[in-house]
Amino acid sequence: MSDAVADIRDVRAGKHHSGQDRESRLGNGAGSLLLSVRDLKVVYPGRPPVVAVDQVSFELFEGEVLGLVGESGSGKSTVAKAVAGLLAPTSGEIIFDGNSMKPLGMAKRPVERTGIQMVFQDPTTSLNPRRRVGSQISDGLEVAAARKPEGGNRLSVEKWLERVGLSASDGNRFPRSFSGGQRQRIATARALATEPSLLIADEPISSLDASTQARVAGIMCKLAAEQNTALLFISHDLSIVRLIADRILVMYHGEIVESGPTQQVWNDPQDGYTKRLLSSIPTPDGLGILPSA
Which of 259, 225, 249 is nearest to 22 (CA)? Predict the structure, then answer.
């Protein structure tokens, strides 16, 4: 756990991005605008209809890590699916790389839309159980080649496996032979092998045990930084988001109730819900004694 936290802090300090420190590269939002979400509203039909997301607006810049936090049911995953094109907004606009985004529906994803990739909460369902993991990572390489034919020499499947801390020979195995944390690393490798401009991580560590959460988050953050891939990291775990995010958005009942640089939100929260969210994070007392039942 401590090594994983150290890796994350190295990324935050810019040690994994050659030639430029992170502060200079991001320039406090002065980098190129990649994603703009304007007045996004999503209403699920029903009696009565459920307003899952209500007038949400935010921006994301190239190479930035944006944390989206809130309790279960606050609308975080709905925002993620709308940005990825998996869900049709009721109203509002999503602009990615200068182009207005339309929901995909059942249509095949156009090549230009593969610049957005997503890592889902449960790798057991996002990986094909009948295909070897090497062939699934190879799909990502093919997507990158189709979108960026001038890309030159790309990493092999074996190198991608090694980059996420697995063995090069693991490509011949099926997903069922890996642990949950290892499967999430494979899903991360597959997504980043496409060389996306934006990676959406929707609660990628919530199904993992505490000993592997920081490790998986650290790998994802490190590899995204090396590729200058923007990361929208969605979680209810503020303690992890604090380590990796440049800015934080706090959602409650479908609305963004607070936003700002990570340390500002962490050290000086303004909204009452943010204060309650922060106060709910457990802190060790140093006694080394488990509470009685």
Answer: 225
Tell me if residue 198 falls in helix, strand or coil: strand
Closest CA to 229 of 64, 58, 14, 21: 64
238-258 in b/e burial notation, b at 16+ Cβ within 10 A?
bebbbbbbbbbbbbbebbbbb
Q: Average pLDDT, stretch 189-204? A: 95
Q: Which residues contact 26 (CB under 8 A, 6 or more apart)?
A: 61, 63, 64, 246
**CA-to-CA distance for 166 and 238, rounded, in angstroms?**
28
How confident is the model over 5-48, as pLDDT tens digits?
A: 555 656 555 544 444 445 544 544 446 999 999 999 999 999 99
Predicted local distance difference test score (pLDDT) of residue 92: 96
Q: In what helix (H) or strand (E) does residue 214 lie, and over which residues does it extend?
A: helix 210-226
DSSP H helical ranges for 1-105: 2-12, 22-26, 76-84
The string over 99-108, giving b where at least 16 C-beta atoms fall within 10 Å of a residue's C-beta and e elsewhere, is: eebeeeeeee
Spatial separation of the C-alpha atoms in residues 166 and 281, rounded to whole Å: 31
3-state secondary structure of 220: helix
Domains along the chain with CATH numbers: 2-28+65-85+106-279 (3.40.50.300)
